[in-house]
Design brief:
The protein is an all-alpha fold. The chain has helices spanning about 5-30, 30-40, 55-70, 75-80, 85-95, 105-110, 125-135, 140-150. Helix 1 crosses helix 3 and helix 7 packs antiparallel against helix 8 (about 140-150). It is globular.
C-alpha cells in the first residue's frame, strides 16, 4: 500500500474514533438534539452551537479522546476547536509529527487501542452507576463516580 493510502486510512480511522467518542458523550449527557445534529452533519457539526458542548463537556471529551487514542491533547486545541473535524485534525496532526504537543500510538489509530482504553459494561452496571450519579450530593462525588465509569471492565 502506498503512503497516500495509509494516510487516508489513518485520517478515516481517527475521524471515526472521534465521532464515536463524541456520540458516546452525547448519549451519556442525554443530548438528543446533539445526537440528531451529529447524525445530520457528521464531523462538520459545531461543538457548541449544534452539539451543545460547553467548556466542561469539552474537558470530558478531551479526556475521553486521550483515553481512546492514548494521547493528551493540549488544552488550547480543545478550547479552540469549533467542530468535530477540528478535533480529528488535531489528533491527525499530532500523529504526523506536526507540533501540537502529543503523539498517538499506531495501535490506537489502527483501531486496536490498548485494553485499558476499552471499557465494556453490563446493563446492570450501567443502571447502577446511573442511579448513583443521579443521587450524588456533591460535584466531587459525581466526578468520582464518573471516574469509576472509566475503570469498570
Amino acid at each position: 500500500m502506498n503512503a497516500t493510502g495509509t494516510k487516508l486510512e489513518r485520517a478515516a480511522s481517527i475521524e471515526a474514533q472521534t465521532l464515536a467518542t463524541v456520540r458516546q458523550l452525547l448519549v451519556e449527557l442525554g443530548g438528543s438534539r446533539g445526537l440528531e445534529e451529529l447524525a445530520a452533519r457528521g464531523a462538520t457539526a459545531h461543538l457548541e452551537r449544534e452539539l451543545g458542548l460547553g467548556s466542561l463537556e469539552r474537558v470530558e471529551l478531551m479526556v475521553r479522546l486521550g483515553n481512546v487514542c492514548g494521547v493528551r491533547l493540549p488544552d488550547r486545541v480543545v478550547a479552540e476547536a469549533e467542530t468535530v473535524q477540528d478535533l480529528a485534525d488535531a489528533l491527525l496532526r499530532d500523529n504526523s509529527g506536526e507540533s501540537t504537543g502529543a503523539t498517538i500510538p499506531s495501535a490506537a489509530i489502527e483501531g486496536t487501542a490498548p485494553a485499558a482504553a476499552v471499557v465494556s459494561r453490563s446493563p446492570a452496571q450501567i443502571a447502577d452507576l446511573e442511579q448513583k450519579i443521579s443521587s450524588a450530593e456533591s460535584l466531587t462525588e459525581i466526578l468520582r463516580l464518573r471516574g469509576l465509569c472509566q475503570v469498570i471492565d
